[in-house]
Amino acid sequence: MRAYEDLVIEAENRGLKISEVVYQNEMEDLQQSEQALFQRMRKNLKVMRESVAVGLSSEGRSISGLVGGDAVKVEGRRKTGESLVGKQLSGVIAKALAVAEVNACMGKIVAAPTAGSCGVIPAVLLTVEETLQVSEQELLLALFTAAGLGMIIAERANVSGAEGGCQAEIGSAAAMAAAAAVELAGGTPRQTADAAAIAMKSMLGLVCDPVGGFVEVPCVKRNATGAMIAMAAAEMALSGVKSAIPIDEVIDAMGEIGKQMPCALKETAQGGLAMTPTGRRIQADFL
Amino acid sequence: MGRSNVFDLLGPIMVGPSSSHTAGAVRLGAMARKILGEEPVEGTLSLHGSFAKTGKGHGTNLALIAGLLGMAPDDERIPEAINIAKDLGLNFGFKIADLGDVHPNTVKFELLGKTGCHAQVVGSSIGGGTIVIREINDFKVEIRGDYPTLVILHQDLPGLVAQVALLLATAQTNIARMLVSREKRGAQALMVLETDELVDDAVLVLMRRLPKIYQVLAIEPLE
Description:
- Chain B: Pathway: Carbohydrate biosynthesis; gluconeogenesis.
- The complex is a heterodimer of chains A (about 290) and B (about 220).
- By secondary structure, chain A is mainly α.
- Chain A has helices spanning about 5-15, 20-30, 35-55, 70-80, 85-105, 120-130, 135-155, 160-165, 165-185, 190-205, 220-240, 245-260, 275-285, and one strand at about 110.
- Chain A has one domain.
- In chain A, helix 3 (about 35-55) packs across helix 5, helix 6 packs antiparallel against helix 7 (about 135-155) and helix 9 (about 165-185) packs parallel to helix 11 (about 220-240).
- By secondary structure, chain B is of the alpha+beta class.
- In chain B, about 30% of the residues lie in helices and about 35% in strands.
- Chain B has a 6-stranded mixed β-sheet.
- The longest helix of chain B has 18 residues, at about 20-35.
- Classes of the chains: A mainly alpha (about 290), B alpha+beta (about 220).
- At the A-B interface, helix 2, helix 3, helix 5, strand 1 and helix 7 of A face helix 1, strand 1, helix 2 and helix 3 of B.
């Protein structure tokens, strides 16, 4: 089974970034040129940018009418300069809500790693881009780092709410975003591992309990909070804070917790928020 | 989950909200259209399990019709698919059904095409947008739509599999996966072949001329 630690060691030994190891491996596995891989990733980045832009300016509602219009509220307050958490972090929140709302409203997004968790990675990386003025090439590389970690999570555990709960979706997205943000901010391969571990540890045990079974409540807002966890984890790792438990072991723990989690809390809408009086009422009203 | 690639984790590009209930549903519709082999004009779609229970809130109905109209999972017209079908004068209806011991996200299509072809297709969306076609016209199959696929209905006779393989070999078409099944010895049988390259039309003509081959269906892969 593959380990993120192997990527870190290879990157350290060869003096490369994690992303460079990842895309070089993929060139071999997929038998595709560097240019072809980057072209495909550029398409992903383009759709991520578009989904942020659409969500930040749209007040559309989802099919059920439960979500929509919240990204606009946060972005509006941010623009007045009143943000409590600062302009940069309120931007993370607004962007994550934006993409997740576009998804809920049947707009176009990039699953990252899933549709339900599509807001975390674009929110974090596009905010780092704004803050640090990185190049598009560096941003594309960071996406390979995120995907490289995602592949290892998918192999050692899973990235499916039905299989592992929300920790496997937003948790994985937060870990992927944290690792990518650290690389983008100039951190070392080892620091990307620490950031990923810290982010995923913070999401362990989170259940998948969508009201009515829709990818709306609480999914949309969890994209925003997951993105904030990713930012906090990246900040810690860049400061030299280490994770006591290595990332591969955290991923394995996430997989085990997913197995131990009862079925009612894994995307079946039979437990948690879905079974609250309000959750039941919303479902009854819709059906 | 098995070995994946970077674009399984960042991707697909799709219209939301759910990879299994929306993107997978579009691909199921698109695959049913390819199996029918022409534009469908009429159809009944039977929704099973989670497709039946939570499909409405995920736009599963819209997504299935979008696929039948030939749209891809990232087509921004998906939310309008049912209206588009109505405007085109196409007649699709939905039913809730118990399709038995199948994956929770399963649909059965009963389709009529514009030149009168019929097809009955059962397929499941098994996660992350991946699909499996389980049944075509009551025959059990397993088609994921990622390779060009031949479905060949024939009589169970010695040497027929070799003859089909020889035609493909002559055309330098490589077989990636093959499944053979039969009702009983000497009775009606089925070959499902996934190939690395698209099968040449000339090869299909020759294949259809082989004795005791009743039907050859060539299905293009999904995008």
